[in-house]
Design goal:
This protein is mainly alpha-helical. 61% of the residues lie in helices and 0% in strands.
Amino acid sequence: MRLALLLFATLPLAAGELTVRFDLTLARVLQGTSPSYTPEFVLADAVPLHTRRFTNFSGDVSGRYIGALSAASEATGRQFPELARVVEGIVKLQKTDGHFGDPMSSGGAVTNNDMAIMWGNGRLLIGLLEYHSAHPTPAVLDAARRLGDFLVASAPLYNSDAVRREFNGEKFAVGYICWTQHLEGMVALWEATKDARYLALARQLAARTERMPSQHSHGYLSAVRGLLDLSRAWNRPRASGRA
């Protein structure tokens, strides 16, 4: 939640309660302890180093950290050396198939751990794209493209009715929302590249997005942001590169 509060940095900051809370949150992320958001701590879920809980949600902390400080950088004009070090470290950890974290299952089955990895990679994808928006960097955009290609390749399995049925219901933190939350990142990736495959996958994810009260509200809200972005993208004039 501390990292999420930094997203308010995208709003114009005027003196008052919001500014005070933003400054306190930024100080907590940059100088706080228990935990300290050192590059080693942030990168642990993308390696992954299983030295703390939930590092199997590969890219969750690192993606949120990158996105939050990127938004803060855009809003304030400040440069954060810690952010640059984390991003430099992240791109070196990408697997050959484009994802981050532990190996995915093979043989056509989807496990709870696969969904955890999917969740974290979704947060990392949007984080990378938010960083590229604030600090255009070819290597970062290339990493986002490779992750997007991994998701496109995974789509036939994860879009299947069988996987959708299995991971709805009582899956809670590893429910189907771990897949559909990629909608937000795929629209942003299309915006950055105009690759029609990414917009096509975004539309498929939009058709599969639904609210499951027992599942991750953050994932659902991320998908809702993606729905709004997709609507704006799809309703632009065809000259914009719409697929």
